[in-house]
User: Which sequence fits this backbone?
């Protein structure tokens, strides 16, 4: 069911410094900051030949990654995102096998304008998994 | 400098259960367990169309992931691995920019039979980065 790894998301305490590390010492192609107020984050994408790294920083009050950065003040890998063909079919399959879907189970429009869901990390070895309809 | 994302490594407390989750609810192509005693881990690869997930479980005494699982008993994302063309050139570039290389800075042969290095997570937003010569 899961397809491509769409991205790895890394929560960072200083977005400009993180971008400079990926552009400089790591020598990757790094984009410009994008504010996504409806998601409570500012993101910078790092383009790799086969996937992307999404650098995440809180934007505004109540950001969904604020708590993570409080617990991990140096930052850390926040989630991984796998593509699926049909987000509703994916949800039903996972729920039918007992996996917990975060929120009310209704896909919402994610940071890339496509329907997404998040799976409870307690059901997947401590890994927060985002599913995005490709 | 960094190229493809070679893999994401997830440390798991129960390798068979983790593999069953990726093969079952997530519907991915999951390999068979491989003991790597010289690395202190047993691994199972999950093949995605564009990269791999490496499920890691401690093998033997003194496994390099034992401490991580003690701190994260449910498991968690342990590291990400980026490919580089020349591991020595990568090391020199990173060290020259002040990044700390783990160990004595000498590339060793990694789990895939290729030279690897690990970068200190304190220099990369709490992310343990492995570099593998492709």
Assistant:
């Amino acid at each position: 069911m899961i397809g491509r790894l769409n991205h790895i998301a890394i929560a960072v305490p200083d977005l400009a410094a993180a971008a400079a590390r990926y552009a400089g010492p790591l020598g990757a192609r790094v984009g410009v900051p994008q504010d996504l107020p409806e998601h409570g984050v500012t993101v910078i994408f790092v383009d790799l030949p086969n996937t992307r790294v999404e650098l995440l920083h809180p934007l505004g009050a109540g950001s969904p990654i604020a708590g993570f950065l409080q617990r991990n003040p140096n930052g850390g890998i926040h989630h991984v995102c796998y593509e699926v063909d049909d987000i509703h079919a994916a949800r039903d399959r996972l729920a039918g096998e007992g996996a917990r879907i975060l929120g009310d189970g209704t896909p919402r429009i994610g940071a890339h304008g496509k329907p997404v869901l998040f799976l409870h990390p307690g059901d997947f070895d401590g890994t927060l998994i985002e599913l995005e309809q490709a």
